[in-house]
Amino acid sequence: MKPFFTRYRSLLFAGLLSITAGAYADDVAHDWLIKMSHAARKLNYQGTFVYQHGNQIEVMRILHSVSDEGVRERLLSLNGARREIIRDNDLVRCYLPDENAVMVGHRKANQKSFPSILPSRLKALDDNYTMILGGVDRISDRQAQLIAIKPKDDYRYGYRLWADRETGLLVKTDLVAPDGKLIEQFMFTDVQIGQKIDPQDLRPSNAGKDMVWHRDSTSGAIDMHQSRWNLQGAPKGFRQTAYMRRRMSMQQQPVEHLVLSDGLAAVSIFIEEIDKKRNSSMSGLNSMGAVHAYTSVLDNYQIIVVGEVPAKTVSAINSGISLNR
Amino acid sequence: MSDKEKLSILMDDETNAAERERIIDAISRDQALREIWSRYHLIGTVIRQESAAHGAEVLPRRIAAGIEVETSSTSTVVSMPIRQRPMAKMVGSLAIAASVAVVALIGVQFRAPDSKQSAAQMVATTVPVATKDYIRAAGETRWKQRQPGTEHKLNMYLVEHNEFSPTTSIKGMMNYGLIAGYDNRK
């Protein structure tokens, strides 16, 4: 009789090889995620992309410039109203000519809370998603590597990401419902990567002279270490990544802002004290595209849970919030 | 009322809920009506892209890109362009639209020289068939609950939220697409 190892040697070897290959594919997918995150922040790029959501297609122009002056970005809708969003380092301006409004805010995320894809967080991400290294496609005349990210439950969406093989920049992305249906898609139809961006192209097309400007009354947020809120209903994998208090545009009362994330998806909880002089009318489930929001009143506070997650996720989080007493 | 009139009424959203439901049901059951619905929206997109910042010379490419989105999709979500616009306002542009649409179709055909299909057949087959649910979802790209003051607030919260979403670190400003692009004429 042959020894056990001799008899099952080939089987063991094949099994080991398959485990090793699977781990390798996971690692390569992780590497691509990090590369994509790095490329999106560090590279100059500009291009036109189509944004398909629900049954609608938008065409937008995007510019991203990294220079001695910092990071400057511009997003311009090429259809309908000339809506645009301009980010100049920490300053964000949303021009909404159809609403005769300019919204001005400041980036609140600091070094600690800025949502980078970090190697240390990728392992936690594996608890909630399965990463699959796909094939190579041609997107916008560039070779692109597909990374598929499948959720392990129906509290989060899945993603198909195509990264430019040369630079790592995301050139196409699908957001996929837990049942596999496509929810929305971004895809560059033309993109230039690594070329200097003309500063003139980063300016808004409308100075907003005749528009109503809504500004942040303060530029900073106060980081809070100890939340006074209990979060019992958060689905598995979502953990708190930020908690702060600040004033926001059009808002007299300070707002508390908690962020939960599973490593990829994120949900924000905004808590504002109800101004009794103003009769707030928001309540229940709301949605726009893949984004869901759930609003409720708890004691004297209005609670708004919002994120690019399924409806059941914002509902579950909202219903589990209580105040520490 | 002719079938095309029904479609125009639906696109213009100039009807009550009951009539709307009835027309949607009719379209859902009728292959020819679904195809007309698809073409109306294709024309609508051509007209809108005619006035886009980058001019008409890139139109065929954009249309081709839009159709590529559809053909590359493996899902049942239909990717037809349907930012709604009263058909009455489109009349003045229809002549331009027709000519540009022809260019767009040539562009599509040029992209697939091996195909034996005619351009018209190609559009008819590459624009997926609209389903009832799909049509029902038309224009639902703003917040569904729209009460005075709530949209600004929810949009601002969404912008604030995006800063903290890990996907933003990959998608960059694309994550703001919903704010910059959502349909505001509905």
Number of DSSP helices of chain B?
11
The largest β sheet of chain A comes out as: 12 strands, mixed
Radius of gyration of chain B: 18 Å
H and E order of chain B:
HHHHHHHHHHH
Portion in beta strands of chain A: over 45%
Describe it for me?
The complex is a heterodimer of chains A (325) and B (186). Chain A is built from 4 helices and 21 strands. Chain A is α+β, with helices and mostly antiparallel strands and 325 residues long. Chain A has a 12-stranded mixed sheet. Chain A has a 7-stranded antiparallel sheet with strand order 13-15-16-17-20-19-18, with helices on one face. Chain A is globular and about 80 Å long. The mean pLDDT of chain A is 83. Mean pLDDT of chain B is 49; it is low at 41-140. At the A-B interface, helix 2, strand 1, strand 2, strand 3 and strand 4 of A face helix 3, helix 4, helix 9, helix 10 and helix 11 of B.
Summarize this, please?
The complex is a heterodimer of chains A (325) and B (186). Chain A is of the alpha+beta class and 325 residues long.
Write a concise keyword list for the protein shown above.
heterodimer; A: 325 residues; alpha+beta; twelve-stranded mixed β-sheet; 21 strands; 46% strand; globular; B: 186 residues; mainly alpha; 61% helix; 0% strand; elongated
